[in-house]
Design brief:
By secondary structure, the chain is an all-alpha fold. The chain has two domains: about 45 residues; about 250 residues, MetI-like (MetI-like fold). The protein is built from twelve helices and two strands, in the order ααββαααααααααα.
Length: about 300
C-alpha cells in the first residue's frame, strides 16, 4: 500500500513539474508573440532596415525619425563596459572565496555579496548621480558625469553578485581529485587554480557571465538615471547615451496609444528580446562545447 502511494506521488509530481515547465514556455511564447504582433504594425509604416540602421531617434519631431542604431550602440557600449569590469572582478572574487578565503572570511563575505543583489536599482542609480558621476566628471574634466562609463560602473556593481555567486558555486563543485592530482604533479595552488580548477569550472563560469550580461542588458532604472539619455551615436565611454530599456521606460508612459511611436517601442523591445536570446544561445553553445571537451 505504501509503495502504491509513493508511486502515485511520483507520477503526480512528474506531471506537476511537466506542467510548470510548459507554463514557463507558454509565457515566453506569449511575450514574444505580443511583441512581434505589435511590431508588425510599426513595420507597416517603417521599413525594418531603416529602423535598425537609422542614425536618428526623434519620434516626436515635426518629421519623426525612428532610427534605433544609436540605442543599439549605446546599449552594447554600456553592457560591454560593465562586463569588462565585472567579469575579471567577479571571477577573481569567486576564486578567492572558494580557494583562498578562510571559513570565517567566507561566511562573512559571501552573504554580504549576495545582499548586494537586494539593493534596489533606483538606489544604485542615485549613487551614480551623487557619487560616481561627479567623480568621473572631476577625473576626466567633464561638465557632468552622466555618461556611458557611469552606467557601466553601476551595471558592473549590479551584475557582480550574480557572477560571483554562480561562479563560486561552479568552482567549489569541482572534484577534489582534480586538485589533488595537480598538486601531486608538483603544481602550486595558483597554477592549479588557473590551469585546472577554472578550466574545469568553465561551463558554470560562462553561465554566470551570461546571466550577468542579461542583468546588464535588461536593467532600466539605473541607466535611465545615470547615462544622460542622449539619443545620439556615442563616440566613447565619456559620451551621454540612451539605452533601449531607458527609451521604453521614458516614452511608454506618455506616448499616444496605438500610434506609430507606440508600436516603435514594441519594435525596440522585440530587438532587445532578440539580442538577449542570441547572447543566451551563444553562451549555451560554449557551455556545451566545454562540457563535451572535458567529457572527452
Amino acid at each position: 500500500m505504501r509503495f502504491k502511494t509513493r508511486l502515485s506521488l511520483d507520477i503526480a509530481f512528474k506531471y506537476i513539474f511537466k506542467i510548470t515547465g510548459l507554463l514557463v514556455l507558454a509565457a515566453l511564447a506569449g511575450i514574444l508573440g505580443m511583441l512581434v504582433y505589435n511590431s508588425f504594425s510599426f513595420f507597416m509604416d517603417v521599413r525594418p532596415f531603416d529602423f535598425i540602421t537609422g542614425m536618428e531617434w526623434n519620434p516626436t519631431g515635426k518629421n519623426p525619425k525612428y532610427g534605433m542604431l544609436p540605442l543599439i550602440v549605446s546599449t552594447t557600449l554600456v553592457t560591454f563596459g560593465a562586463m569588462l569590469i565585472a567579469i575579471p572582478l567577479g571571477i577573481g572574487t569567486a576564486a578567492f572565496i572558494s580557494e583562498y578565503a578562510s571559513a570565517k572570511v567566507k561566511n562573512i563575505l559571501k552573504p554580504m555579496i549576495e545582499m548586494l543583489a537586494a539593493v534596489p536599482s533606483v538606489v544604485i542609480g542615485f549613487l551614480g548621480i551623487v557619487l560616481v558621476g561627479p567623480g568621473i566628471a572631476d577625473l576626466a574634466n567633464l561638465p557632468n558625469g552622466l555618461n556611458a562609463l557611469n552606467g557601466a560602473v553601476l551595471l558592473a556593481v549590479m551584475a557582480l553578485p550574480t557572477i560571483i555567486t554562480i561562479a563560486e558555486d561552479a568552482i567549489h563543485a569541482i572534484p577534489k581529485t582534480y586538485k589533488e592530482a595537480s598538486y601531486a604533479l608538483g603544481a602550486t595552488k595558483w597554477e592549479t587554480l588557473c590551469k585546472v580548477t577554472i578550466p574545469a569550472a568553465a561551463p558554470g563560469i560562462i553561465a554566470a557571465i551570461m546571466l550577468g550580461v542579461g542583468r546588464a542588458v535588461g536593467e532600466t532604472m539605473t541607466v535611465l538615471m545615470a547615462t544622460g539619455n542622449a539619443a545620439l551615436l556615442p563616440d566613447g565611454m565619456f559620451d551621454s547615451v540612451k539605452t533601449m530599456t531607458a527609451t521604453i521606460a521614458i516614452e511608454m508612459g506618455e506616448v499616444p496609444y496605438r500610434t506609430t511611436h507606440y508600436f516603435a517601442l514594441y519594435a525596440i523591445a522585440t530587438v532587445l528580446f532578440g539580442m538577449t536570446l542570441v547572447a543566451n544561445l551563444v553562451g549555451e553553445y560554449f557551455i556545451n562545447r566545454f562540457r563535451k571537451y572535458h567529457a572527452a
